Amino acid sequence: MSASVIQSEGISNDDRMEVADSVITSSTRMRDARLMRGSNHNGMRQFNERIVLQAIRHHGAIAKADIARLTQLSTQTVAIIVSRLERDDLLIKQARVRGKIGQPSVPLSLNPQGAFSLGLQVGRRSLEVVVTDFLGQTRHQLQFSYPYPDPQVVLPNIQQALVQIQQAMGENWSRTVGIGLTAPLSMHLWSNLLGEASPQSAAALKSWEHFDLKSAVQALTDLPVEFAKDTTSACMAEMLQGHGISVNNFLYVFVGTFVGGGLVIAGHIMSGQNGNAGAIGSLPMGLAQGHDSEADKLNQPNTPQHSLPPQLLQLASGWQLEQALAQAGLDPLVVHQDLIMDDQYSAYTQVWLAQASRALAMTITSATALLDLDAAVIDGSLGPSLIAALIKATREQLKNYQLEGLQTPQVLAGKVGSHARAIGGALLPLHTQFFPLKDIFLKQDLV
Predict the structure, then answer these.
(1) 253: part of which helix (H) or strand (E)?
(2) Which residues pair with 38 in a beta bridge?
(3) 167: number of CA atoms within 13 Å, CB side?
(4) What percent of the chain has pLDDT over 90?
(5) How confident is the model at residue 206 (pLDDT cuts 50, 70, 90)?
(6) Three-state SS for 78?
(7) Which residue of 19, 157, 166, 424 is surrounded by the most CB atoms within 10 Å?
(8) Pairing mode, if any, of strands 116-122 and 126-132?
(9) Strand 259-265 and strand 138-145: pairing?
């Protein structure tokens, strides 16, 4: 962009200098050329602000000179941006730091109360609501329980939650930037998967087929609503607040009522063309057995043409353990408590752990062969002790696979925990509003 073009746009000297500085340094600042979205001054100004916020978020409280070094923006441009962000209450000054040489520096940090965001997670038995601040820290949390997810029950619960949260936040509500809504996909198929016996529950689940949850929630609020699949949301939380800080390539596994996952490659969440990247629940756990020829069919006319292998969700979901407990006359919900590891349940947990760990080990091996992963991160909404036992068993089961030609991935325990889906939902609007890219989840080093 030439100086004459910048001048013709009629912008201030400060903004003109910022645009020119950005155009000159953008190629060296960012490794991915797709990050640049045009050169109009409004977009460039917003982009640079987000780059500065990202640098502070990743590196902690730092002085303007360090921000300029990390972002490769000029010190004058950084000073302009920092002043704007301070006026918007997004940055706060820390105590002066005196060094041996030069003037004392004033570190700048993100203001926790600069912005807030809501996460709404619709699950099989409950609605979870989380409010996070500008640092991604949980400030408020609500939970509404129900026997099964009926839209006619879930929506009023969401409406009630919005009222309660607004009251609890008081003046901070005005700094809320959006709502991240998360839910499993294809809930209308759960009746078949869960074997719901009640006509009421089966009808409620079926009603999700044509129910637009995002539009229904948007009608309840003036805040922008964004949607993400629940396991993708949990994966984002792990990427931003867990192992993703230091691990660039990993398969994320979340074990709840059903097992699901997400995929992080080069610090980015991969969604795929149809949003199914990392949808490990659908991964087959064996070879399909079919007839090799027409003659085989004639010789064995009563044999099904295809014997379909089970999917991962049929072997490594919490639902299988719940069902085993229920059939034995025990409380199935104990799977979400550490009590599940008591001796009285061992006959059921040990069978499930053996089955689930074998299936997960196969999944991790297959994914590593395709994607060259550094790690697999396992988390979930089941009892923490049960998840820990599952991780240990999966590590052991990995030893049963030939990994020649592959780098054996680490199997790591997730750091975010059972609330990862709701927390990830709350992080989504913050990223849309304040990070360099709003259409993908970005974790990038600024060096």
Answers:
(1) strand 250-255
(2) none
(3) 7
(4) 61
(5) confident
(6) helix
(7) 424
(8) antiparallel
(9) unpaired
- Strand pairing category for 126-132 and 138-145: antiparallel
Q: pTM for this one?
A: 0.82
Q: So what's the pLDDT on residue 196? A: 55
Min mean pLDDT across 42-51, 206-215, 224-233, 306-315 is at 42-51
Q: What is the distance between the alpha carbons of residues 346 and 374, in angstroms, rounded to a whole number?
A: 33
Show the 3-state SS of 100-157. Answer: CCCCCECCEEECHHHCEEEEEEECCCEEEEEEECCCCCEEEEEEEECCCCCHHHHHHH
Greater model confidence, 97 or 23: 97
The continuous run of DSSP H or E covering 82 comes out as helix 75-87
Say whether pLDDT at 80 is over 80.
Answer: yes
pLDDT of 443 = 33
Q: Which range among 17-31, 181-195, 198-212 has the greatest average pLDDT?
A: 198-212
Question: Both tokens of residue 436?
Answer: 């360099």
Pair of tokens at residue 1: 């962009």
Q: At 141, phi and psi to the nearest 5?
A: -150, 135
Token pair belonging to 408: 């054996």
* Distance (Å, whole) CA 109 – CA 86: 10
CA–CA gap between residue 50 and residue 309 (Å, rounded):
47
Helix or strand holding residue 67 (H, E): helix 64-71
Tokens for 51, please give them.
């780059």
438 in Cβ contact with 431 (< 8 Å): yes
The C-alpha atoms of residue 360 and residue 366 are separated, in whole angstroms, by 10
Rounded Cα–Cα distance for residues 431 and 337 (Å): 33
Q: What is the mean pLDDT of residues 318-326?
A: 95
With CA atoms as reference, report the closest residue to 251 among 367, 348, 92, 162. Answer: 367
Residue 105 pairs with which residues in a beta bridge? 97
Sign of the CA dihedral with 430 first, then 432, 437, and 439 last: positive
Residue 270: CB partners within 8 Å, gap ≥ 6? 263, 264, 277, 278
